[in-house]
Write a structure and sequence with these properties.
The protein has 278 residues and is α/β, with parallel strands linked by helices. The chain has 2 domains: 5-88; 93-262, ATPase, nucleotide binding domain (Nucleotidyltransferase, domain 5, 2-Layer Sandwich). Helix content is 43%, strand content 24%. The chain is built from 8 helices and 10 strands. The protein has helices spanning 31-47, 51-55, 68-80, 105-122, 166-176, 196-224, 239-249, 260-275; strands at 5-12, 18-26, 59-62, 84-87, 93-95, 129-135, 138-149, 152-164, 231-235, 255-256. A 6-stranded mixed beta sheet has the order 5-8-7-6-9-10, sandwiched between helices.
């Protein structure tokens, strides 16, 4: 549950991790919308014939950065449906930052997914370094690393930056400019706007790409010295606005995932289920 949208996903670990989003709704929607979207998705999942669904999916987890009352209602609704619910379970990261209790759960789960993915890809003995770029209501650019320890891999969150996403930038411009019109955001807007609306669209799209480029370079420089050898992951609902800037910053390529937060939360739940013998 983010600041703008919420979604329910089914995460499977049969034959490798897979994430399938079942339903989505507005994060600030009311109880009727929650009942319709969430209830329908849970009923559909229960009626499926795939093996995981037949065994019964009994463990649910919530990543939430929105209003606490909506998170509480979501927990209640899932418990009523027979699920054991973990709300914002520990991401299993060493938080090498000040005030880790203030760090959003979505940032932590996205980092957990990226680090564990790189650990599996690079194999034992590697020490992956990761940069996660999440473009949504906010733009977050976070750094992390993984290294071997006596108890298995240790995943460390090193910190990062938080800026405004494209939708937030557009809303702020319309709200603060008394005579500025409201406008839709366009990731392909040209830099040269030939009307006020086009100029506003340019400022958001082109300016946002500039923020992505600068933060990608500067956060990686502060965390690792450079981007060399760093695995970069791009996620978030507004990632189309960031894709060009990330591609320019990472000529060696990057990983794009629509559901990195879901995957990280799923990995945390999977580990919790194994520890319970589930």
């Amino acid at each position: 549950m983010g600041n703008t949208n919420a979604s329910l996903a089914f995460v499977s670990f049969v034959g490798g991790i897979s994430v399938r989003v079942l339903s989505g709704w507005s994060a600030d929607g009311g109880a009727p919308e929650l009942e319709e979207k969430l209830g329908g998705a849970l009923r559909a999942l229960a009626s499926e014939n795939e093996p995981a669904a037949r065994r019964g999916t009994s463990l649910a987890g919530i990543s939430a950065v929105g209003a606490m009352e909506r998170e509480t209602r979501l927990v209640q609704r899932l418990e009523e449906a027979g699920y054991s619910v973990l709300s914002r379970p520990d991401a299993g990261l060493v938080m090498d930052i000040r005030s880790p209790e203030t760090c959003g759960s979505d940032r932590q789960y996205a980092m957990r997914a990226a680090l564990e993915d790189q650990w599996e890809l690079q194999g034992d003995g590697a020490a992956p370094r990761v940069l996660v770029i999440d473009a949504g209501t906010a733009l977050t650019v976070d750094a992390g690393r993984a290294e071997a320890s006596s108890g298995g891999p240790q995943f460390t969150f090193l910190g990062g930056a938080i800026a405004m996403g494209p939708g937030s930038l557009a809303a702020a411009m319309a709200a603060r400019g008394a005579r500025l019109p409201e406008f839709t955001v366009d990731p392909d807007a040209p830099a040269l706007g030939r009307s006020t609306v086009e100029a506003l669209q340019s400022g958001v799209a082109v300016g946002f790409r500039g923020a992505v480029r600068e933060l990608t370079q500067e956060v990686s420089a502060d965390a690792f010295g450079s981007l060399d050898g760093v695995a970069v992951y791009l996620t978030g609902g507004a990632r189309s606005f960031a894709r060009r800037a990330v591609s320019e910053s990472c000529p060696g390529g990057f990983h794009e995932s629509a559901h990195l937060v879901h995957a990280g939360l799923g990995r945390v739940l999977h580990a919790a289920g194994e520890s319970r013998g589930a």
